[in-house]
Structures are given as C-alpha cells and as structure tokens.
Amino acid sequence: MIQEFKDFIAKGNVMDMAVGIIIGAAFTAIVTSLVGDIINPIIGLITGGTDFSGHYVVLKGNVPDGATLQQARDAGAAVFAWGSFVSAIINFLIIAFVVFLLVKMVNRVKDAAVKKPAAAAAPAGPTELEVLMQIRDQLKR
User: Fold this and answer.
1) How far is CA 119 from CA 108, 113, 123, 124, 126, in A?
2) DSSP letters of 4-60?
3) Domain annotation covers residue 139
4) Which residue segment(s) compose the domain that 114 sits in?
5) Distance, CA of 66 to CA of 22 (rounded, Å)
6) Are 54 and 82 in contact (CB under 8 A)?
7) Which pTM was predicted?
C-alpha cells in the first residue's frame, strides 16, 4: 500500500499538477497586483475617478448618510452591494484577458520550439512529377 502511494505521488501527472497549483498561487498575486495597482487606477482616470466597489443600496436597516459599504455592513444592514459585483466583473475580465495573452504567448513559444526540429529532420525529396520525368528520361536513353 505504501509503495502504491509512492508510485502515485511519483507519477508525472501528480507532480505537474502540484507545480501548476504552486505557480498558479504565485501568479495570482502578480495578476491581483497588476489589476489593483496598475489597471484599476487607469480605469479610474478614464471614468473620472469612479470606484464602483463602494456603491450599494440599503435593502433593510438604518445606515447614516455617506456611510461606506463596510460601515453599512457593520451596522447590520442588509445591503445590495452592486458596486462590488461590478468591480468583480471588471477584475475578472481583466484577469481573463491577461491570462489569455499569457497562454497565447506560451503556445506560440511551444509551437515555434516544436516546428523547428520537425522541419530540420525531414529533408525535402523529389516530387512525384520529378520522379516521373527522371523515369521518362531514363527510358528515352
């Protein structure tokens, strides 16, 4: 049983998955910083400094005017935090686009690495027409 477990862990699939999860966690921090520190401020400039994440509607409860979303939640009010939802959608679209670009770049690099050796390994031979022409020329002699 222990040997089977060792064999399972040593398989390439499990190790690849573990590396992928670790790299994914590290990559999440990079993408989160990219979105929060670089892209969202640019979007804020374009939209006139609007930050949607703080917008909400009070469904039930008493909240003082001008209270932040966190203050409204702390007061025990039921809130419809539509701004947080809009921000989450924007962040998702940005992250999905960045991941798309990275996957596209990685696929391009992989394709270039695979195509070069394949092209070098297979020398071009004569075409069927060339072979037939050689046979014809041999028969004429």
Assistant:
1) 16, 11, 8, 9, 16
2) HHHHHHHSHHHHHHHHHHHHHHHHHHHHHHIIIIIIHHHHHHHTTS--GGG--EEEE
3) no
4) 51-132
5) 42
6) no
7) 0.53
Same structural domain for residues 55 and 90?
A: yes
The contacts found for 1-8 with CB under 8 angstroms, 24 or more apart, are: none
Does residue 37 share a domain with residue 17? yes
Q: What is the pLDDT of residues 20-54, one digit of tens each?
A: 888 888 888 887 787 778 877 887 788 776 667 78
What's the farthest any 2 CA atoms get from each other in the chain?
Answer: 106
Identity of the residue numbered 79: V
> CA-CA distances (angstroms) from residue 55 to 63, 69, 71, 81?
13, 7, 12, 6
DSSP code, position 66: T
pLDDT of 25: 84
Residue 140 within a domain:
no
Reference 70, options 51, 56, 90, 60; nearest CA is 56
Give the model's pLDDT for residue 50.
67
| pLDDT tens, residue by residue, 99-130 | 788 889 888 988 888 776 655 555 678 888 88
